[in-house]
Amino acid sequence: xxxxxxxxxxxxxxxxxxxxxxxFWTTGHIATAGNxxxxxxxxxxxxxxxxxxxxxxxxxxxxxxxxxxxxxxPGVQVNNDVFVEPGNSPIPTPPCAS
Length: 98
What we know:
two-stranded antiparallel ribbon, 2 strands, extended
């Protein structure tokens, strides 16, 4: 958990520095660049939380109508886990050229 928090914080610092640099490059004003970077830092955290809430809401909705388990490969379902049977590769292989 500590690693995830550290990665999130360092990623946000990198993003804020990037926005500051772009804003300073386009406006030429340190104050404007700082205000923009600060605003983006706050709004991006808020939008990430909203994004997570929407995903969680969507996952809850799909479970209600039975779409929580979408399989992209053919397989056998055992105890809610999907196993691909040996010899049934989900990736089609071309026939061998003779």
